Structure formats: structure tokens, C-alpha cells
Amino acid sequence: MADPPLEDTLLRGYARLARESRRRNTDLGLRVLDVVLAGTFLVVALPVTLPLALAVLATSGLPVFYRGERVGRGGRFYTMLKFRTLRQGAEERLGPYLGAELVERTRDEYTTVGRWLRATQLDELPQLINVLRGDMSLVGPRPIRPRFFAELAEDLPAYWQRIVVRPGLTGFAQVRRGYETSMAEKLAHDLEWIADRSVRLYLRTLVTTFLRVLGQSLRGVFRPRDA
Q1: Residues 105-123, buried b or exposed e (16+ Cβ, 10 A)?
Q2: Torsion-angle region of residue 69: left (phi > 0), alpha (psi -120 to 50) or beta?
Q3: For burial by CB atoms within 10 Å, which of 129, 146, 188, 220 has the most?
Q4: What is the bridge-based pairing of β-strands 137-139 and 168-170?
């Protein structure tokens, strides 16, 4: 008999665990903040979003958006949106890699505009739509591809706990350490967020992220970097 699809395995094995989260009042408050803030950010960002989309279209053609399958809360899959920053076919070429090796190989795949978008992190703006849809939160563990989630859940027994909350546009691991941190270290920060999540911690993480992105954006304007 054939093995059940990965999605079915994730849903059966992890959705039950996600429903056991005891912090329902906190999660409701964070969801309200997600909707209010993401909606506000989308409106404010409109004058920037349209020129960015046109720049991607003019320099590297269609598609303007990258659409990638990711594991969401409760193990459910969703389509994550970003401005496309890589050359055509890059996802297939980069598919087998993860962590530091993925970061290194990705450097050779950026388009000219994509390299700048990535350096300033403006490629993440379309994920605000995912937040409004309920696929993501502004703060939480970063989204991960289904295949990598399954592999990491086998290697790191606590990895399943990431799907207790929605994946985030930013998170503890990103503001504290960076992209080259090991998966085990990132997981430790993610689990700390899951255990201690609160409105105060949520807002503090957003402020820290804003200051960090502002600094990276200023550097990206004058000296785009690989990130």
C-alpha cells in the first residue's frame, strides 16, 4: 500500500497538537493586531508596492510574484507570496538545499532588482496579504517548505511545535541571530516565542524588526548586499 500524501500525514499528525494550545485569549488578541496592522501597512505601502511590481516586470518579466507552498498553523498548507527576486527556474535548482548552503547558492540566482529587494527586505511586502488571509502572523516562526518541515521534524523532535502558531513575517530567530544560524538555534528562539508570546512581546519584536529593516534598507540603497 502506498504511503499517504505528505499533506495528509502532517494534518493528522500535527493538527491535533496545534489545537491543544492553551493560549487562546492571547492568540485572539494577536490576531486582531495582525489584521489592524497588516491592513494599515498595506495601505501605507501602496505607493511603493506598485513601482516595485513594475520594476520586477520590466527587468525580469513574469511572474512578478513568487508563490511557494509552505506549512501553516495546524500543518495546513498555504501559498506564500513574495516579490520574485530570483531568476526563472531558481526554485528547482535550489530545491535540495537548506540552511547556510541554500543562502550561499541563492546569491548566484538573484536578478538585478531582486538583489536590491532582498537586501532591503521589500520583497516581503506581499506577505501582508497572507497575514490578512489568516495564513500568517506578523510575528512567528518563519514559513518553511513542506518537505523540509517533514525532514526537520524527524531530526528535531520538538520541531512540530512550530505549527501551534501561525508562521510569521518576522520572528525571534530573525531579529536575534540572522540567516546563518543553525536550524536547532532558530528552533530554540521559535519555541521561546511560542511559550512566552504576548501582545507586549509581539510589539517589541515588530519594533526591533522595523529598526533592523530600516538599517538594512539604508545600506541596500547605497550598497546592496547579498542576504
Answers
A1: ebeebbbebbbbbbbbbbb
A2: beta
A3: 220
A4: parallel
How many Cβ atoms sit within 10 Å of the Cβ of residue 187? Answer: 19
Tell me what percent of the residues of the chain surpass a pLDDT of 70. 79
Contact 30, 202 (CB under 8 A): yes
Is the omega angle on the peptide bond into residue 63 within 30 degrees of 0, that is, cis? yes
Does the pTM of the predicted model rise above 0.90? no
Quick one: which of 85, 94, 87 has its CA closest to 117? 85
- Provide the residue type at 62 as one letter: L
Looking at residue 52, its amino acid is: L
Q: Tell me how far apart the alpha carbons of residues 110 and 99 are, in angstroms, rounded to a whole number.
A: 17
pLDDT of amino acid 26 = 87
